[in-house]
């Protein structure tokens, strides 16, 4: 109402300035008052028009919010399986909500504004950084899986077609992201899609003639770049190409390799395992990679998720020495859970010893991870590679290098999320309750470079895993050295 009060106040000042006598004593003066009243009525009408336009905008936002929220509440898990829904959710609660706040702020509605501030101060409320991060992760997903831009914007993700579609404004944001990265082929396709969708009015947010002019200028600029360079291709290193190829393909080992792989019931000389032996499958001979089935129960999985949620932090990468830092090569939330936290964690730790024949006394706590929209982990080694870590750094760890890795899959991913070993040509799909196990080091302590691996982006759905890394110290008599420095060492199948 402050706008109306200000308008009326100005008009009253005009009356006071021009009239120095008692108004009611002169009809001539009252004639001027009627004219002034006409101006006041016009001002009120203008105020009502502006407020009605503002309310119309707010109603359109509210209708869109309610439609999407009702859709999500029908089945939250299914709703969040679609990464485009996640993108649009974060968009609504960041850039669109800011537009709503600006509209509300024009009327100084303190109660509504204070409520919005209260919600936004929650630690789990998305920020503009989340919005930009979602675009980055979806861009990685598109690049790895070679998703067609038009199909992607129409909700086609791999084998699934969703009703969710992106607007012209959304396409422009993706075009800008790729443009800044100098991925002009993708950028061009997104700007073209944004131009084509402009007239369809999928979403009125941000769709103005200024945006259309901007898109046309960008397309013209990139057409000139392509004309000069005569290339639309962004060149990648061979390892990145292999990573993408493995993530895109449902690869089966050649018959000459497949015929040598075995499945067995394994007891590891444990008497109680004679009743319920481990079910183990070889998925690679070099490097030696095994999959153990049914080694984490549903109840253990739910308990680990519960324990992890309150401990989540953004995943960090060790680059030099033992220092950890945030890095774009991994997109996930992680939680470190020690075996003293809950009895189920202690039981899992004991089971790991039974599976591998190694001690967990010098191991790291269990790391439970959740990969969100487009979540991935680029190619890396789990061990500290001599090329990047010096001996004194490893000595400071007090337990040596990571000798073995156990990767537990806590759910099955709708699409994507495979673990790939690009140098070895091996793929491990997420199978709930199973664990993939491999040695990072030879018995000599030398690094096995073929264990370099990566986590493919989650295309649809979510991904939960738990990692356990076992260290060298304490394993001297459990995995002794051999004459052959590159021998496979301890045989899981004994």
TrEMBL record:
<protein>
    <recommendedName>
        <fullName>procollagen-proline 4-dioxygenase</fullName>
        <ecNumber>1.14.11.2</ecNumber>
    </recommendedName>
</protein>
<dbReference type="GO" id="GO:0031418">
    <property type="term" value="F:L-ascorbic acid binding"/>
</dbReference>
<dbReference type="InterPro" id="IPR045054">
    <property type="entry name" value="P4HA-like"/>
</dbReference>
<comment type="similarity">
    <text>Belongs to the P4HA family.</text>
</comment>
<dbReference type="GO" id="GO:0005788">
    <property type="term" value="C:endoplasmic reticulum lumen"/>
</dbReference>
<dbReference type="Pfam" id="PF13640">
    <property type="entry name" value="2OG-FeII_Oxy_3"/>
</dbReference>
<feature type="domain" description="Fe2OG dioxygenase">
    <location>
        <begin position="362"/>
        <end position="472"/>
    </location>
</feature>
<dbReference type="InterPro" id="IPR011990">
    <property type="entry name" value="TPR-like_helical_dom_sf"/>
</dbReference>
<keyword id="KW-0223">Dioxygenase</keyword>
<keyword id="KW-0256">Endoplasmic reticulum</keyword>
<keyword id="KW-0325">Glycoprotein</keyword>
<feature type="coiled-coil region">
    <location>
        <begin position="48"/>
        <end position="82"/>
    </location>
</feature>
<keyword id="KW-0479">Metal-binding</keyword>
<keyword id="KW-0560">Oxidoreductase</keyword>
<dbReference type="Pfam" id="PF08336">
    <property type="entry name" value="P4Ha_N"/>
</dbReference>
<dbReference type="InterPro" id="IPR005123">
    <property type="entry name" value="Oxoglu/Fe-dep_dioxygenase_dom"/>
</dbReference>
<comment type="function">
    <text>Catalyzes the post-translational formation of 4-hydroxyproline in -Xaa-Pro-Gly- sequences in collagens and other proteins.</text>
</comment>
<keyword id="KW-0847">Vitamin C</keyword>
<feature type="signal peptide">
    <location>
        <begin position="1"/>
        <end position="21"/>
    </location>
</feature>
<dbReference type="GO" id="GO:0005506">
    <property type="term" value="F:iron ion binding"/>
</dbReference>
<keyword id="KW-0408">Iron</keyword>
<keyword id="KW-0732">Signal</keyword>
<dbReference type="InterPro" id="IPR013547">
    <property type="entry name" value="P4H_N"/>
</dbReference>
<dbReference type="InterPro" id="IPR006620">
    <property type="entry name" value="Pro_4_hyd_alph"/>
</dbReference>
<keyword id="KW-0175">Coiled coil</keyword>
<dbReference type="GO" id="GO:0004656">
    <property type="term" value="F:procollagen-proline 4-dioxygenase activity"/>
</dbReference>
<dbReference type="InterPro" id="IPR044862">
    <property type="entry name" value="Pro_4_hyd_alph_FE2OG_OXY"/>
</dbReference>
């Amino acid at each position: 109402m402050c706008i109306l009060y200000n308008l009326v106040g100005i008009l009253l000042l005009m009356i006071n300035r021009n009239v120095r006598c008692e108004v009611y004593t002169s009809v001539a003066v009252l004639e001027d008052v009627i004219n002034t009243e006409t101006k006041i009525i016009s001002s009120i009408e203008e105020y009502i028009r502006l407020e009605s336009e503002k309310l119309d905008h707010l109603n359109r936002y509210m209708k869109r919010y309610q439609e999407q929220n009702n859709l999500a509440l029908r089945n939250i898990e299914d709703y969040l399986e679609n990464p485009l829904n996640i993108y649009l959710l974060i968009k609504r609660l960041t850039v669109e909500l800011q537009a709503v706040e600006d509209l509300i702020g024009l009327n100084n509605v303190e109660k509504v504004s204070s409520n919005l501030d209260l919600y936004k101060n929650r630690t789990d409320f998305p920020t503009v950084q989340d919005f930009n991060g979602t675009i980055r992760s979806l861009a990685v997903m598109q690049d790895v899986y070679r998703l067609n831009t038009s199909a992607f914007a129409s909700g086609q993700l791999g084998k699934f077609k969703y009703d969710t579609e992106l607007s012209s404004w959304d396409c422009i944001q993706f075009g800008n992201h790729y443009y800044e990265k100098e991925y002009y082929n993708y950028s061009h396709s997104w700007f073209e899609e944004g131009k084509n969708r402009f007239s369809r009015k999928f979403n009125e947010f941000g769709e103005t003639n200024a945006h259309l002019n901007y898109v046309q200028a960008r397309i013209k600029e990139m057409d000139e770049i392509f004309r000069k360079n005569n290339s639309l291709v962004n060149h990648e290193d061979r390892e990145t190409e292999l990573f993408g190829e493995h993530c895109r393909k449902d690869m089966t080992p050649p018959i000459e390799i497949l015929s040598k792989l075995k499945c067995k019931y394994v007891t590891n000389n444990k008497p109680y395992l004679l009743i319920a032996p481990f079910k183990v499958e070889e998925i690679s001979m070099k490097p030696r990679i095994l999959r153990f089935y049914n080694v984490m129960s549903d109840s253990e999985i739910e308990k680990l998720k519960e324990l992890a949620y309150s401990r989540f932090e953004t995943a960090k990468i060790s680059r030099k020495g033992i220092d950890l830092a945030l890095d774009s090569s991994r997109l996930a939330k992680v939680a470190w859970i020690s075996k003293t936290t809950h009895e189920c964690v202690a039981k899992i730790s004991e089971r790991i010893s039974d599976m591998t024949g190694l001690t967990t006394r010098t191991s790291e706590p269990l790391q439970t991870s959740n990969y969100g929209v487009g979540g991935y982990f680029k190619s890396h080694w789990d061990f500290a590679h001599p090329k990047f870590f010096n001996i004194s750094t490893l000595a400071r760890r007090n337990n040596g290098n990571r000798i073995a890795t156990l990767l537990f899959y806590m759910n099955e991913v709708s699409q994507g999320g495979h673990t790939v070993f690009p140098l070895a040509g091996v793929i491990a799909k997420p199978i709930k309750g199973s664990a993939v196990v491999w040695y990072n080091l030879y018995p000599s302590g030398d690094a096995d470079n073929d264990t370099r691996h990566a986590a493919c982006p989650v295309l649809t759905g979510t991904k939960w895993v738990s990692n356990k890394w076992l260290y060298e110290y304490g394993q001297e008599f459990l995995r002794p050295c051999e004459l052959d420095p590159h021998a496979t060492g301890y045989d899981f199948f004994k």
